[in-house]
Specification:
homodimer, mainly alpha, Arc Repressor Mutant, subunit A, elongated, DNA-binding
DNA sequence: AATTATGTTCGTATATTTGCGAACAAAAGA
DNA sequence: TCTTTTGTTCGCAAATATACGAACATAATT
């Protein structure tokens, strides 16, 4: 009889995906990915939303492990979390590559 | 002065990511990805949730364009949407690869 | 014409997400 | 010490998401 629980990898992948599931957070990640300097203010400037909302999105990305923050008073410097970014690459890569739909037809 | 709106690609990536942002939907996609036969009942059997909930998750995946369904009365056959799966691969691939964090240090 | 098998939709309850302004916190500068 | 700069947190409102059982729909079977 099958174990119907979700696997750790499925949970982790879903957690990353969920964190990426909002255009503002995609934009933030994309901005951080190609910057070296990455202060809150710079991020806020790029986005069409209030600073309280930006802060909230950053918090979610941090909790998902995709970014990290560092206080450089009075500013706060954010950046990609390298280890977890790498993990996300592997999880998404494997996930998206495991589809047989290019080889065999289902529908 | 910068255009603060989200790009089409960012919106699309977020839409895919959001659809993948739940372990049940990851499990469904993973199951479909490696199957040729893919009836609703088979999917439901794999998951620890009620059929009404499974149906709802399938609807979301369909609306996101990641899967498609086909009635084969009295069953319903689901499968990966090949074109959009390919698009997702490209979008996630480019997105995850554009990070400089392996080359330069930010934090 | 009933019955069965297979899924979907409806109605509902609860929880989470998204967004904002206002208030707050902390450290630097006047 | 008062002020300024920079972000975070709080409190709230509105919208979405998650989950389920019950009711419904549809076509095949008896």
């Amino acid at each position: 009889m099958a174990n119907k629980d979700y696997s750790i990898r499925q949970e982790q992948l879903a957690r990353f995906a969920k964190a990426m599931g909002h255009p503002a957070r995609i934009a933030i990640l994309q901005f951080l990915a190609k910057q070296e300097t990455c202060y809150f203010g710079d991020i806020h400037e790029e986005l069409p939303i209030a600073k309280a909302t930006v802060s909230q999105h950053l918090k979610e990305l941090k909790e998902a492990g995709l970014i990290q923050g560092e206080v450089e008073s009075p500013k706060v410097k954010y950046c990609i979390n390298r280890d977890n970014w790498q993990l996300a690459k592997e999880l998404f890569g494997n996930f998206l590559d495991q589809c047989l739909c290019e080889k065999k037809r289902c529908c």
